[in-house]
Amino acid sequence: MLKHNIMAADTAVNMPTAQQQQVLRCSNNSLTTVMDDIAEETAVALIYNGISHVVMMSTPSDLYDLAIGFSLSEKIVNDVGEILDISVTEQELGVELNITVTSRAVWRLKQQRRNMTGRTGCGLCGAESLQQAMKNQRINGQRSKQPPRELSEFTNLAIQKAVTRLQAHQPLQQLTGAIHGAAWCDENGNIKLIREDIGRHNALDKLIGAISASNIVINHSSFLLISSRASYEMVSKAQAAGITMLIAVSAPTAFAINIAKNTNMTLVGFARNGRHTIYS
Question: Which residue positions are annotated as catalytic (predicted)?
């Protein structure tokens, strides 16, 4: 049963998430014609109360979760209670996600003055100024020099367990090799919920939206595992969702580490089979 009562009778789309194409594969100096599975990406427009806010390229699945997660992580709404209705309309060029929010949320949205065109690899497109792009990120205006905290042996084992099982929970990534994943893991390293998308930001937003509709409680002993690098916007989105431990398969950026230290978030990078690095 959903934890919230958002009206969402029509959020499914009839779009494939992958297609097969004939390709030439070169191996050992020999060319072979084979069929390959290719990930789909679709333009998705998020429209709040009839006002277009952002267009992003996304995997056309779990769009209901994307609508909720994006609204929360971008702080358009303070909680899901400010989302009144979600509907999806397929268009010739993509998908429209129509989200109805409260008048207070609309006012907040207008303050952001954002009208951006997003892409899968960028979380800043459309920001109108450096101040807007970096809002709330420089705390005290200084770089934190505090050392990384030590994790318990139990937590380190849980991280390794989740990392080794991530691939098995990503069916679209296994099929196409082009998909990011964001997973919520319990204190024992069990993957409880995962979402996939061609964009790493979208995968995280979908997961945040899915968590909000589930019975999962975000606490300090559980953690977020992402298949990508940990850049500042991934840390910021996790922070906005109340997540206090982020594990990334790839490297973090220096800015992301600084934000994590300043907000008491545990940040772990290069989480691979048999090793990981603790940065904050």
Answer: 122 (cysteine persulfide intermediate)
